[in-house]
# Entry
Amino acid sequence: MTEENSKISENTEVNDELNEVCDECKNQDESVTQNLILTGFKICKSCRVSKTIFPL
# Structure
């Protein structure tokens, strides 16, 4: 039973990671998951462009 509970908790952690909410602007966007896979950062397309142009 504890193995099953640990699998459930791991799945909820993964779902929390892939909630498609940008860490910078807090907007929900499909590109957040794509950028998370490509770069490792949870940022949307517009925040990624702004960080590339103005890296502060």
